[in-house]
Amino acid sequence: MSKELTGYRFLDKDPIIDLYREALRKSGLDPQDISNSGGPTVSTLKAWDLGKTRKPQRLSMAYAMMSLGYHEEWINNRTGDVLKPKFKDFPTSKVVHFEDAKRAAAARNVPRKVAKG
After folding, report:
1. pLDDT for 16-74, tens place per residue?
2. CA–CA separation, 67 vs 87, rounded Å?
3. I want to staple 40 with a disulfide (CB 3.0 to 4.6 A). Which of 18, 44, 90, 93 is the partner?
4. Phi, psi dihedrals of residue 75, rounded to the nearest 5°
5. CA gap 26, 70 in Å, rounded
6. Helix (DSSP H) and strand (DSSP E) numbers for the chain
């Protein structure tokens, strides 16, 4: 008699959302920066953050993480072989280098002079 295989069952949300939140916090960027640099829409990113989404689409998460400077790998524990997915449809025309996005985010936080009038 073979044992039935069952997958990991999360109760609240997919744990990948917590990894995304940690990466976003470490980057200092906001959802608009991620969206502008090739990631999913701002509303999708906010739904992840607010808990409205339990299981994000894999490709959307991959684009968000790539926009934060991360890449995905599958490592075979037995052989050490590493496979990296190739995202041919990644919108490279929208991609902004991570450091440029970080500088843009910092520039938005600079206090602006208010015109007296």
Report:
1. 999 999 999 999 998 998 998 888 999 999 999 888 999 999 889 988 998 888 888 88
2. 13
3. 44
4. -115, 125
5. 12
6. 5, 2
